[in-house]
Amino acid sequence: MSDDVQYPDHFVERLEILWGAGFLSPGGPDEVRQIVEGLELAGRSVLDVGCGNGGPTIVLAGDLGAGEVVGIDIEPQLLDRARGHVARAGLETRIAFQAVTPGPLPASTWSSARTRWSTSRTRPASSARRGVSSSPAAISR
Ligand SMILES: C[S@@+](CC[C@H](N)C(=O)[O-])C[C@H]1O[C@@H](n2cnc3c(N)ncnc32)[C@H](O)[C@@H]1O
User: Higher-confidence residue: 110 or 70?
Assistant: First the structure.
């Protein structure tokens, strides 16, 4: 496994015991709902930046009814785990994941882009924070 991996499986397993299946950070579904409070997401397309192992992504598509959610993350092994959670939630048709390199957000048109606990990681000499940390928690048009 590369030295660049910040979330190896054994660490993720411990974090999920602490914060719940699919979550790498505290707060759980309630905090996801707070972050997007006031946004009407039903049927909209949402980009989840730094989606990790997919807990928040599932809340966006499941509880909050987003029509399509694309989760992006720089650690592909997290996305494998996220796909398992999504399959168990029966949301495969509305959630897709994409491994990215740090940099500008994927070109597309999004109703909303949101991020949760995902802007702290900076890679010197990379564009890790460009296009992510400059994004507010939620953008809606
Ligand atoms: C603290 S975890 C939060 C994961 C998830 N949002 C949650 O709330 O459980 C931060 C996540 O952001 C990802 N990340 C860090 N920098 C990123 C970047 N530049 N682009 C995309 N994902 C990034 C990490 O790999 C990690 O999965």
Answer: 70
